[in-house]
């Protein structure tokens, strides 16, 4: 199993996961030329992508899907069936013949088993995913305001976990570019995880066997890779967890692909 984040942040998100038989994208918020370029860096052609798993309808996660499907007729996009009820224009405009509406939390794409689970976010719908292949597990949970015990359970024992670490609360609160309403939304239970909240969640997840975390969906306005990493490392140390020994913490980037993990 191979996984790599292709882009992570408010300007576009996509993560690649590969098994022996399947090549899967989780979200595609990039232009077609950009997603093609980033896939080429891991020697993958867009025509090889079997499926795109959608987490939610915000443009930084779905913006590139329409064109991707148009250019690659064999690629399917997977969306929870209940989403039909919301009549989301960007979803309903996708080619019906390429949509797979999945009915239950568990489904299959070739040799990969996939579980989806609800995440609390200010969108019409938002889900996280865990992908299983040959005893390995890759999970992704971004765009969520808090982590419940139920979500902790879904993410437990992941070999690689992509977890949101969106902002530093002090930077966000002091940011003059953001109106109070926006700050309140981001800090709410349907907003985004702060660096501290991410660190606290990782501390719980280490106890379940999670050994590799990639901090994801960092705000370019209210965070930096160094700040996210050092804050999470500090929070973990407060729980008696040593980064690099008890768990490894990496960071996903907006403008370049991240670390490639071969499991």
Account of the protein in words:
The strands form 2 sheets. Strands 6-5-4-3-2-1-14 form a 7-stranded mixed beta sheet, with helices on one face. A 7-stranded mixed beta sheet has the order 7-8-9-10-11-12-13. It is globular, with a radius of gyration of 17 Å. The mean pLDDT is 97. Helix 8 (195-206) crosses helix 9. The chain has 263 residues and is an alpha/beta fold. The chain has helices at 32-40, 59-62, 65-71, 89-92, 149-155, 169-174, 180-187, 195-206, 225-238; strands spanning 2-7, 14-18, 23-26, 51-53, 76-80, 99-102, 106-109, 112-118, 127-133, 136-141, 160-164, 212-216, 248-251, 261-262. It is built from 9 helices and 14 strands.
What's the helix count? Answer: 9
Question: The biggest beta sheet, please?
Answer: 7 strands, mixed
Portion in strands: 25-35%
Classify the helix fraction into a percent range: 25-40%
Rg to the nearest angstrom?
A: 17 Å
Span between N and C termini?
A: 5 Å
**What is the N-to-C succession of helices and strands?**
EEEHEHHEHEEEEEHEHHHEHEE
User: What is the overall pLDDT average?
Assistant: 97
What is the structural class?
Answer: alpha/beta
Unreliable sequence segments: none
Number of strands: 14
Judging from the principal axes of the Cα atoms, what is the shape?
Answer: globular
Query: Can you list the strand order of the major beta sheet?
Result: 6-5-4-3-2-1-14
